[in-house]
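Request: Show me your protein:
***
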Amino acid sequence: YRLVLVTETRAVRFGGKEASLPPRPFQLLRLLALAHRRGTPIVSRHVLLDKIFTASTAEAAVKDLVSETRRKLKQAFGDAEEVVQLIATHTTAG
């Protein structure tokens, strides 16, 4: 696999490099990777709210987390197109 996640250490391996992510960005990346493996690569904002945050969390928190995760991935692995494409936003899909 091009992307490898190590849950115990929150390590992400990609393109011959390895980086550790904070808990929530790692959790987001893990949920997206699991959905992709199951053949359902689009995960709704509502599912992410349910799985990562509490019921009282504002929906904007998901957008902020996605932005933070993208930023961390770019810092760790560069801003090559394949890194940028790890997380895509589909606004019409939910």
About this structure: The mean pLDDT is 92. The first strand starts at residue 3 and ends at 6. The radius of gyration is 13 Å. The first helix runs from residue 23 to 37.
